[in-house]
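SAMPLE LOG
Freezer: B-3
Tube label: C17
Construct: single chain, 303 aa
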Amino acid sequence: MGRAVAARPNPDRLLESFLDSLEFERHVSPRTLLNYRHALTSFRDKAKAPAWKKCVANDFRKFLFELMKTGAARATIRLHFAALRTFYKWLAERHGLARNPLKEVQLPKLERKLPMVLTITQMEELLSAPFRAPEEKQAAAWAPARDAAILELFYSSGLRLAELVSLDVAHIDPFSESVRVMGKGRKERVVPVGAPALEAIQKYRSQAGVATGPLFISKRRRRISTVAVGNLLKKYLRHTSIPLSISPHKLRHSFATHMLDAGADLRGVQALLGHASISTTQIYTHVTVERLKKAYGEAHPRA
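STRUCTURE (predicted):
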């Protein structure tokens, strides 16, 4: 008697069609696709709700309650529901869903945390670290020059980590002093690059013999990874007096905050960062106000 073969579950055709539309029509990133899939399958599996079109508001309230019981952060909860809301909007547009049950569900307010930024003095200390840190025996001779160029470009142009590692030599234009960046949703933007960053990039390229292809390479002469960039930042932080553990994204925060501190226009900073919404950029104005209040409190005799 042959061994019984377990029946495969029916694929969720609506879910897969939705994810296909995100990938091929809206060109969302692989990470966003993964997050959306996780959020939607999590609701489907944990809530044990009926078919997508038959769900009611209470199904989503129960799911919200379950997430809160597990101690999920408010930001995580809101990300789950952002995926659900986008999915149900798509169901209404593409599959004739008459009523969106998520419109009746209220979410807990997001705890707004101000992004942590380095001071200008701390930033300058970090930028000089590659040339002060002891050389590693296994590293390429040009590694300090590359690392200095990476840090300079991060701070000079406020790029995302994924944007920086995906740069090719052809994306840097030393004549117009700019870099061409492919941002989220495959939206291209051109961002200015300061003279110190351009000089650091030229010095690195000359030492490493990088003429074409990926701009930043590993010692095996392949495109550098996001993990490698994160590790080099951690390494250089150990050779500074900065009492913080920061990610590459914090250099982007520092770029935006220092621009606004110096009087840059909010819309201009939004364009430089590649933010789709001005509200995303506005959090940096709060950072600037907090820094001003702190300076006032420390310096004014009657603060």
